[in-house]
Amino acid sequence: MYNFNHHRPGSVDAAAAALSSADDGKILAGGMTLLPTLKQRLANPSDLVDLGGIADLKGIREDGGSLIVGAMTTHAAVADDATVKAKIPALAALAEGIGDAQVRNCGTIGGSVANNDPAADYPAALVGLDATVHTNKRQIAADDFFTGMFETALDEGEIITAVAFPIPEKAGYAKFANPASRYAIVGVMVAKGPAGTRVAVTGAGPSVFRLGDAESALSGGISADAVSGVSVAADGLNSDLHASSEYRANLVSVMLRRAAAAAAG
Amino acid sequence: MPDTGIGASVKRKEDFRFLTGQGRYTDDINRPGQLHAYFVRSPHAHATIKGVNKTAAEAAEGVVAVFTGADMAADNVGSLPCGWVVNDRHGDPHKAPPHFPLARDKARYVGDHVAVVIAKTYDAARNAGELVEVDYGELPAVAETGKAQDGSAQQLHDEAPNNLCYDWVLGDEAEADAAFAKAHHITKIDLINNRLIPNAMEPRAALGEYDGGTDSFTLYSTSQNPHLLKLILCAFVFGMNENKLRVIAPDVGGGFGSKIFCYAEETVCMWASKKVRAPVKWTADRSESFTSDAHGRDHVTHAELAMDENGKFLGMKVDTTANMGAYLSSFSTSVPTYLYATLLAGQYTTPVIFANVKAVFTNTAPVDAYRGAGRPEATYVVERLVEVAAREMGIDPAEIRRRNFIQPDQFPYQTPVALQYDIGDYEASMSKALEMIDYDGFAARRSASEAKGKLRGIGFSSYIEACGIAPSAVVGSLGAGVGLWESAQVRFNATGSVSVFTGSHSHGQGHETTFSQLVAETLGIPIENVEIVHGDTGSIPMGMGTYGSRSLAVGGSAISRACDKIIEKSRKIAAHLMEASVEDVEFDAGTFRVAGTDKEKSIAEIAFTAYVPHNYPEDVEPGLDETAFYDPLNFTYPAGLHICEVEIDPATGVTEIVDWVAVDDFGKVINPMVVEGQVHGGIAQGVGQALLENCVYDKDSGQLLTGSYMDYCMPRADDLPSFRVGLTETACTHNPLGVKGCGEAGAIAAPAATINAITNALGILSMDMPASPEKVWRLANEPKMAAE
After folding, report:
1. Lower CB density within 10 Å: C or N end of chain B?
2. ipTM for this prediction
3. Tell me, what is one Gene Ontology molecular-function annotation carried by this entry (chain A) (predicted)?
4. Residue B713: which of A180, A243, A251 has the nearest Cβ?
5. Using an 8 Å Cβ cutoff, are A215 and A230 in contact?
6. For residue A19, what is the domain's CATH number?
7. Could you tell me if B517 and B464 lie in one domain?
8. Number of structural domains chain B divides into
């Protein structure tokens, strides 16, 4: 990697200040995407602002019917957390299925969400569970947050502090992992929460999307049978070495049924 | 069973240092004043090098020197040679275009070496590497094996018209045609043997050091055969005396063939260390491993099998195009010829076989031996053909194999493709494997899977391999540039411990344990008293290294012979000490006894006497240190039957291997646990090829699309079942240990077993590897998709 200045501030405000004073600063969260990019010399930031020293950004708490997950909470911490397992087991299961043990021990929810990799798992969790992204400036509904492939509603220098998940009545996640990378080729989150039934799909398209047909089909009750007729068109879905858009369309239907079955319990 | 002798599952002696992080690999070695090399590699698959501007790089911080192909040419550094001459169907040698360590006028694959930067740190070298300005003239590239010769493809080498390296044949085509003319049925298949990237855990590394005082070099390298590397570098690349180079291959973390070869990087590090008068080190990063390690497999094959009405094989015809990559790696030419077509008889009595192999150049990394090297490709052709034949003829796949097996009373068996199998019992392996898998219960298991909405299939692979490579006279007559014997020196130390110097090289195989067991049992001494030394041309007799499952059969036999010499010399010393005639002295379990008396001397006492010869026979030299060279009389022929059972989810196309039975005949077994580990690893690699691994180049640009673990899928523990391994035994007839070799068997057997199982589950005849979920899903749903 190229040389850069490393900052490890103790507060979000100090991080924001370090970022704004850098020529070309980047936030370092878990580093699971950024560090390989740097090692391959595909990026050359002047400064890295490492959020690992900010205690406020770590941890999980329940607050008013929601789980608040700090932005620097690792996937492993979410997967192992007793409250998450009790209140939103589908979220714990999703976190448990991200990458491998090394990735889960370093990667964070904030970093994953801010990167908005089209094959990441968390975007499906946020949209499916109707979460809200908390930043140092505002709160953004998940539906408005993920704006396109590797694109989010975050402004320059805006720092995610937490993600708030309303505790659902039911939720289930099913994922078809890329056998090499273990990213989602298709991941589907089905949830019945305070705001109704939601279905979010990651991996299949350029960015996470909701599946309206499936939400309607599940509105009368969540079961695999209820969505047995739901399919999506291959047009516009991702296509790569590992899966064509046609195969992804099939996987959306299959993972939808499996997620619905998991949510139904 | 003895605790530590032959047949005991002794825990691996070497694992303590590996598991506690105390292994010493090439990259762990640092020399005073050491500099670092960074290779500037071609980003294009095919391009002329119009010019290289080194000025900015040379001026960069920490840079000591920048070299290009022109600098090496000025020093008369030669081409990296291909050490096996294959004569084509007209008797002419294969086309051997030069392969310079740093490209001179053209780059021929993505990753080809164009320049090297030598600097005080790796980062400084890499930074400066970005400042080397190469003026490329891009040319059209050809990356596909099947397209290299279609006339429109750009020529890679002037020396090889139409990108053809050789057009080679084995067998009699007219006889084969005659056999086919009599056939009741002919089964035809088209296969692609997918290209693989070796992925040894330790990347390649090299550290060259020049000693001006003696005008000599030391090269530390991740080599499977340090003596051979020394020979190639001195005799062919540099034209220097062999006594001026010492090659040390310390602990090496896996090779699978990819570390047999003489590579550009180690050549450059050695040469540059004299230019800059400082040690020069290079360690590949993982991306470099993907682009520049010699790859494996990559065949396109059409094959036909002629049968009579009972499914008895009458003849086989095989037509293969093999990809050599952009240049010929050290032994590349032998892999799709003498290590491939000679195995096409398999375990069967097929009387006539004709093979035609065309080797072609493409704008891809060089291709050479990879675990199994030609033999997996042969087994895949034979066992897929046999399976398809069984389905087409309506004969049970076990039964059609039985009808064609070479029978135990037919050995030694001369195949129509040059090899003479010494011994085997294929029915024994089949019976045991069928029992272990409960073949009779398969129908019920398939029904149970169907009830769950799953498709179940079973697949066989009756593989054979030619190992213990190899009789020097035989390989010499076939074009090998070297002899393939092995050496061993067994040295008793004065106080009774033993150091064994072996020309074999361990890079994960467990030699330090297996060879110690052999020596401990043969000499009758505690295993703790045996040390195995390998990997240093400065301390070991000339040896040929480790590949082709040869270490125990050839290297172990050399150790056995050296131990015999030790015992014979010791017997003379013992006879003198016990005042008996040599003929009356018996040796058993480490003790010499005078027959019929209670006089005895331990071998340790004899060793002490040999070094402190106060009372000593006049006609015997002091010391107890014997060397033996062993040249095998024949290849060894490990064989067996692997059975794979799969369950497929038709909704997703995911294949789960639910059971795996491997019954192998490796001859005598020294350490069953080490053998089982080798079988497990081999199967994992074979399953990797069948289900997951695939090296893909963009067919137009020649860019490597699977250049990292994000896209190149290695098998992991949860992709595999718990293997069930069984052994049968027919002892090799021609080596002193009766052993055959086990390192490659799994990788040879597994691909065909897996694909046979998947196609059985899907009710189809053929599909190409890897059986990715999407491919399997399409095949599972094809009729339905067609109906829609």
Report:
1. C
2. 0.96
3. FAD binding
4. A180
5. no
6. 3.30.43.10
7. no
8. 3
